[in-house]
Structures are given as C-alpha cells and as structure tokens.
C-alpha cells in the first residue's frame, strides 16, 4: 500500500543511518548542535524536570492538556484485550487514562453478562463474577516506553500512589530504536513527545514496525501536520 511504500526502507540503510554517531547539524533552541548533542541536551532537560513535569504541563497549558489527553483516549476507544505502546509516556498520563477507560468498558461487559446469567444459581453467578473481576482489563496491556530513567521513575511512583499495577509495564527505550518485536501492538501513542525525537523519520519507521497490521498510530502534539498522509 502507499503507506507501506512511504514508511518502508531497506533494513541495511536503516542500520547505516542509526550507526552515524554525530550526524548532520540541527537546532536546539538558538544553538546549532549535532544529532547526538541534541539527544543529550534533551535527555538532560527531562532528567532535571522529571519531578515537576506534570506541574509544568498544567502551567503551560492552563490544565487543558488533561482534556486533550482525555480526548485522545476516547478517540482510541480501546476495548478489553488491546495492547498499547505509549512512547515518551514517562509519567503515565496516557497509560492511566487507558486503564481507566478499559476498566469501564470491561465493567459494562460484565454487567451485561450477568443479565444473561439469570438462570444460573447465585453461587454460579458469584463464581463467574469473581473470575471475571480478577482480570479487570480483559487481557489489555499498556507498555510505557521512555528514554529517560528519571521520567520512568516518577511514573512508577505515581502509579504506585494511584494504585495502578495490573496490565502496566515500564521499559527504558529510544523511540528511534524500540526494544520490541515486529507486529506486537494494537495501538501506538506519543503525546507531546514527537517534538523531542531527533530523527522523526526513524521514530515513524519504528512505530510502523511494532504495530500489528491494521494497528493505529495516535500522536498528540501542538504543531500542525504538513504531511497529507499523516494529517488525516
């Protein structure tokens, strides 16, 4: 398909590009830096602000980022069993919303199921309900992948404080070279993270690689998309 033609490239060429240590010069603020220098500077920025990151988002958007993230998850409309990869999702904002949404869908499914069990004994209904309740996400999983250890650390602490554990995992990884197998996830999300990726072309290549056929790519960002293929 046209999408495959635009996003695919020979594996050797991809590895060769990744092998470039410095790469061409690019901008970081008002500075001109190499690719590697830009990666390091961005890492240092997020390492220093990790504990204040959520507060900074509230300040910069007057809290509207929370509404945007709610809209993103509702657009995703995940069903129980969905496998989500949230890239650059360190503090867990998208992941926690995903879990809440799937739990809500799962609960409605269980309620409908109970209505169809009216001919069963109370003991049978109770055992069935207990079994289903044990897996409140219906097999859904969300993997939060972030390149910054401090961001992941803050996210884990936040998850523990809010009581999230089921269906949740944290992976240290680079969006430009994801540590996952091909065709693994149903949905890939990246919220306010694509701007900090040094090689967006490689990140898109990796997103395409790890998504299952028919999988969905959801990007939440301030900027306008100029590529007509991705703007729809």
TrEMBL record:
GO MF terms listed in the record are: 2-methoxy-6-polyprenyl-1,4-benzoquinol methyltransferase activity
Q: Provide the GO biological process annotations.
A: methylation
- Pfam short name (any one): Ubie_methyltran
Keywords (alphabetical) are: Methyltransferase, S-adenosyl-L-methionine, Transferase
Q: What SUPFAM superfamilies is this protein classified in?
A: S-adenosyl-L-methionine-dependent methyltransferases
> Which domain of life, per UniProt?
Eukaryota
- Which InterPro entries does this one have? SAM-dependent_MTases_sf, UbiE/COQ5_MeTrFase, UbiE/COQ5_MeTrFase_CS
Q: What PROSITE patterns does the record point to? A: SAM_MT_UBIE, UBIE_2
User: Which N-terminal stretch is annotated as signal sequence?
Assistant: none
Regions crossing the membrane: none
- Oligomeric form and interacting partners: Component of a multi-subunit COQ enzyme complex, composed of at least COQ3, COQ4, COQ5, COQ6, COQ7 and COQ9. Interacts with PYURF; the interaction is direct, stabilizes COQ5 protein and associates PYURF with COQ enzyme complex.
* UniProt function note: Methyltransferase required for the conversion of 2-decaprenyl-6-methoxy-1,4-benzoquinol (DDMQH2) to 2-decaprenyl-3-methyl-6-methoxy-1,4-benzoquinol (DMQH2).
- Its protein name is COQ5 protein
Q: What is the lineage of its organism?
A: Eukaryota, Metazoa, Chordata, Craniata, Vertebrata
């Amino acid at each position: 398909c046209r999408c495959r033609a635009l996003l695919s490239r020979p594996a050797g060429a991809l590895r060769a590009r990744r092998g470039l240590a410095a790469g061409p010069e690019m901008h970081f603020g008002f500075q001109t830096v190499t690719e590697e220098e830009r990666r390091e500077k961005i890492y240092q920025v997020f390492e220093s602000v990790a504990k204040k990151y959520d507060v900074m988002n509230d300040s910069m958007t007057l809290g509207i980022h929370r509404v945007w993230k709610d809209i993103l998850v509702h657009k995703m409309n995940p069903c129980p069993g969905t496998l989500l990869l949230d890239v650059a999702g360190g503090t867990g904002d998208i992941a926690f919303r995903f879990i809440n949404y799937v739990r809500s869908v799962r609960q409605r499914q269980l309620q409908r199921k109970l209505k169809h069990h009216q001919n069963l004994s109370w003991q049978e209904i109770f055992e069935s309900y207990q079994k289903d309740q044990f897996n409140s996400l219906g097999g859904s999983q969300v993997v939060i992948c972030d390149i910054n250890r401090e961001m992941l650390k803050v996210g884990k602490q936040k998850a523990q404080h809010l009581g999230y554990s089921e269906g949740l995992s944290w992976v240290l990884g680079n969006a430009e070279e994801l540590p996952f197998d091909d065709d693994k996830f149903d949905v890939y999300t990246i919220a306010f993270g694509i701007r900090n990726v040094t090689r967006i072309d490689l990140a898109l290549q990796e997103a395409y690689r790890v998504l299952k056929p028919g999988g969905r790519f959801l990007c939440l960002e301030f900027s306008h998309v100029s590529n007509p293929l991705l703007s729809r």
